[in-house]
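Course assignment 3, question 2. Fill in each field.
Student: A.L.
Task: Predict the tertiary structure for the chain below.
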Amino acid sequence: MRFAEEIVVEEFLPTVRSMLAEELRDRGLTQSEVADLLGISQSAVSKYANGEVERNERILGDDRVRNLVARLGEGLAEGTMSRVEALVEIEILIRRLENRDLVAEIHETEMPELAGHGGDFNVHDPEGDLRTTERVRSSLRRGLTIVESSSGFASLIPAVGSNLCECTPDADGIDDVAGVPGRIFDVKGQATIPSEPEFGVSEHVASILLAARRHGSDARAALNVRYSPDIVAALEESGHATAEFEAEYDDVDAVVGAALAELPDATVLYHTGGYGVEPIVYLLGDDAEAVAEMARDLV
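Answer field:
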């Protein structure tokens, strides 16, 4: 695991310090004077100025870095810039380069798992896309752990399989919903989860969740289980509002919308099946853990 801050500490700062030490020495300052300005030892200045410190070529060749070093070197050497002002200037550049820029790109190179985000990972943005999707995956994994560890959950899995899904806060399509590729199946009485959660892999349960959200539901997660009158009754006894919708539909948005129009606070949607259509119950909740716990309470 490689943190963006490590890129700054281990790649950016040594490179910039060496460039600045070199710049100040070229302007006639002694090693002692350079050490005082940079707050480092004279031996460190010697290593920086003599190229004994490994430098990152991408940072070394960046025009913004080179221009800043030249400007700081001039200001510090001539006394027109204080050490604090120089520090602030460097900090500003670091933040800029961390925000979908050079540091983010180096981070992606050194941690290939970030590939595909195109340097779009802003380490200081708590609502950034990567952070958001990873939070959803993490929540979904916790929900799946509940499913796997719940004795008897397999008895709730319908013939078509179950899926546990969770969406991003601003989801507007299936690609914004994470689920289990291949669904959750009953294998010899055990709920079996075939692979890690991914986005865009659950068309059916995701469609129900998205339709519910479009019609006013605040749910961020959904789980489908088999239908029986006893299951619906147990959910109602637990305080959940249940709403029935038509099983044979051409437009999922329309039938889910009609059900929620009658009962806007419903946290359970279900249909009783039809010709060639298995009856299903859909549990809705704030996150994957919440709906997994709803199911666990049924077994």
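Instructor remarks: The chain has a mean pLDDT of 88. Residues 18 and 48 are 4 Å apart (CA to CA).
Grade: pending
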